[in-house]
Structure formats: structure tokens, C-alpha cells
Design a protein that fits this description.
Helix content: 10-25%
Strand content: 15-25%
Oligomer: single chain
Structural class: alpha+beta
Strand order of the largest sheet: 1-2
Number of helices: 2
Shape: elongated
Order of helices and strands: EEEEHEHE
């Protein structure tokens, strides 16, 4: 995995781009469950201060992508808190309403 100081991830391509800066390398949250004994299960949550999907900022998604995509699909959970919530509202406002584009808010079931 690339160093956080030498690379960053492009949200649109999913590829690491050498030589660009990254604020922080975020770790994936993990949940572990032990069911031995079943009467006393143990659940361990490992998570930093914020889940990575709550830290997406408005400038990480190109304006042309938000305006121009046929379908903008976002998790309703993204509206809950953090930078992603603020960014999501900005993207929805930027996108506006149109008869030839759809915006979907997934309920996360």
C-alpha cells in the first residue's frame, strides 16, 4: 500500500496516484464477534474517530461528474454526519432537478 505522504486515492478511478498529497490514510473499520460460549458473545469494534465514508469532502468528487452523470446514487446513511453529509447536501444542490437525470437515495437496507 502506498504511503499517505506520497500518494492519494482518486475517488473517480479508484487508482492510487503517485506524487499527489493525501491528508490521512484511513483504515477500514472492523467488527469481530466471538460466540464461544454462545450465552456470552463477545463483540469487539475497531474504528478510528470517524469511519472513512464519513470523511469525503466536496472537492474530492469532480463537479462535472456530479452535474453530468445520468444517475447519482448515494446512500442515505451518507447524510448522517461528518464531511460526507455536508458534501452530499452540496452535491444535491449542485445537481438540481432535471427530467433527463435521476438522483437515488438508497435507504441502506
Amino acid at each position: 500500500m502506498p504511503s499517505a505522504t506520497t500518494s492519494s486515492r482518486s475517488w473517480t478511478s479508484g487508482e492510487w496516484i503517485p506524487g499527489t498529497s493525501a491528508a490521512t490514510l484511513l483504515l477500514t473499520p472492523v467488527v469481530l464477534a466471538a460466540l464461544a460460549p454462545p450465552e456470552e458473545p463477545q463483540i469487539i469494534f475497531y474504528r478510528g474517530q470517524a469511519a472513512p465514508d464519513t470523511t469525503v469532502t466536496e472537492d474530492e468528487v469532480p463537479v462535472d461528474d456530479v452535474r453530468g452523470c445520468r444517475v447519482l446514487w448515494m446512500s442515505q446513511g451518507a447524510l448522517a454526519l461528518g464531511a460526507t453529509a455536508e458534501s452530499s447536501f452540496a452535491w444535491l444542490e449542485l445537481r438540481g432537478r432535471s427530467d433527463d437525470r435521476d438522483t437515488v437515495l438508497d435507504l441502506d437496507y
